[in-house]
Fold this sequence. Notes:
alpha+beta; 157 residues
Amino acid sequence: MSQSDDSKNAPLPRMEKDAALKWAKDYTAYMARIAAVELTPSTAKAHFEACIGANDEVAEDGRYSLFYYVNSPAPVTEHTRVVRTLRRELSQEGYEVTGYREFKDAYESAVFRANNKENSYRVTAETVGSGKTKPQALSFSVRTPCMLPPGAKQQQF
């Protein structure tokens, strides 16, 4: 919400929650498609969260961010290939890689994290599950920046 005195009241991007959720579903499906893996729709979860500012401000104007994830049953032998593919492809589409690790074992699993430089969307693909008590899977996720529903008046701080 607020990162500096100059930007804390900058206009927020506007999008209905349903449209944000559709984008998240579509984008995780796109990531899986370019990585040539399937998704398990029953694992999908969406969390709409309040935006909290740098000084713990919480607005009452309807702003939100969305965290959405869905898993793939891709075997761990494919996780390194997937994160390599995403790093290569999404880097060419305006994403800046902020975290990357290839799969080694249950303690050093695959991680790909990137931010879109233009719109601040964040995407991730990473190994989830311990492999000992929980089966390992590959999770694809997206997080939107703080957004405001169309028609809502943006609260100022």
